[in-house]
Amino acid sequence: MLARYLLDRPDAVAGRRVLDLGAGSGIVGIAAAKAGAAEVIAADVDPYAIAATGLNAAINGMTVLPVLTDLTTGEPPATDIICVGDLFYEAALAERVTSFLDPCLARGIKVLIGDPWRAYLPQSRLRLLAEYAVPDFGTTTSSRPSGVFAFETQNAPAKPRR
Question: pTM of this prediction?
Fold first, then answer.
């Protein structure tokens, strides 16, 4: 859903430096590149994810720099926008990601989050930008809402989960 959002609204990333945090297969980073991002870095802690990102970027003819590292343990990177796709599925990970994003916001880095309303999503910190119906895991016959959000420092309640 975050990749779809970027493709539908290229002005969100066009000409900017984008970090795809927890890149997985690289789909969000590739979408950012297709939408005109000036530079895309795709970071993940899984070497298989990094390999998949590199292959998927090449297949799509996009330039994405895959980086094998846990960026949540360091300083905010030199980037304009951080895209976080579906990293709020586990409490410790959600806390680590949120703690990393706070200093990023303080430095003026915009944060976009795509998430299917997982349990550890920091809803009080989010402003809903778009919502998509996505297939439930393991099925093609049912779907559930999934949101794209701006992560903010102020309490901005997200649309309640259905």
Answer: 0.90
Q: How many CB atoms lie within 10 A of CB 35?
A: 22
Closest CA to 156 of 117, 129, 125: 125
Assess contact for 25 and 47: CB atoms under 8 A.
no
Contacts of 152 (CB under 8 A, 6+ apart): 105, 125, 126, 127
First to last CA, the chain: 17
Closest CA to 32 of 49, 55, 7: 7
58 confidence band (pLDDT: 50, 70, 90)? very high
Question: Going by DSSP bridges, is the β-strand pair 143-151/126-135 parallel, antiparallel, or unpaired?
Answer: antiparallel
Q: Tell me which CATH homologous superfamily contains domain 2-151.
A: Vaccinia Virus protein VP39 (3.40.50.150)
User: Structural domain boundaries of the chain?
Assistant: 2-151
pLDDT, tens digit, 9 for 90 and up, residues 90-141: 999 999 999 999 999 999 999 999 999 999 999 999 999 999 988 766 666 7
d(CA 31, CA 105) in angstroms, rounded, equals 22
For the record, the structure tokens of 35 come out as 């939408």
